[in-house]
Amino acid sequence: MKKIYGIIGDPVAHSLSPVMHNAAFEKLGMDAIYHAFRVSPEEVGDAIRGAKSLGISGLNVTIPLKEKALFFVDAEEVAKKVGAINTIDFCSGTPVGYNTDGIGSLRVLKETVGQIKGKKVLILGAGGAAKAISFYLDGAGAKITIANRTKERAVHLTSKLSNADFSGLGVELKEYVKASDILINATSVGMHPNEDATLVSADMMHPDLVVFDIVYNPMETKLLREAKRAGVKKRVDGVKMLVYQGAASFRIWTKEEPPIKTMEKAVKDALIRKILKT
Ligand code: ATR
User: Fold this and answer.
1) Which of 2, 52, 66, 274 is an active site residue?
2) Residue 15 neighbours by CB under 8 Å, 6+ apart
3) Does the beta carbon of 150 lie inside 6 Å of ligand 1?
């Protein structure tokens, strides 16, 4: 029988996950389909219970449901620590929750720099995405600094990590960038339509810095353009993170090795189609 997967969130109509997962199912010749379901925060519990009753195999969870959904699943330990899930697996009967955002970012960085242990990582942002990324990198032994506009949020997140420091986004940021091996933008700064915004400019960077932006629309953000200008060789866009978090969900649900290249191409093609439309 055809297996059904999906994503719940609101708004969800523009999610790239359906295109990405359906391309993967097709590539592997699996009898499965992935659909976007618009669900309000008030209905997240009903949606998860209903999905279980209907025999849905797996769900992704997106904004604004990631935190709330945690209360309706058995969550893995790191997801509990993060306080948010983005993946639910129904294969054992009870819904089990995971956070593959962190898994995705860790994989992106391991692929780019190899060993994470001991690396100095500066994370811009202290919201949901920054939280997921920082818990996984902390677990991998990175030395983290959280820099956020609202300093209290940075202080709070830092207090939950084992080896971390905090900063604001003022003049002090320059010194932190200089001292870092890896810079990650986990804020929405630079996202369409504010494509000319960046929190870090070329003059603050050094060529050996790894610059990773989780924003994927546009694919080449202002931060990545500044990195290019500064001679930074290792620049990573948000499409990779999107694909790797999706791939991690796919692996949890299907126990199959996800066709990463196919998924990446599906996302990039969809982004290009979107740009052509606007
Ligand atoms: P997400 O779950 O996608 O991380 P979020 O929890 O709303 O979303 O967090 C957004 C992050 O982007 C926050 O760190 C936010 O900073 P504040 O905590 O000060 O709100 C950051 N952010 C958003 N717009 C920003 C801007 N214009 N300048 C600096 N930081 C910004």
Assistant:
1) 66
2) 7, 9, 36, 62
3) yes
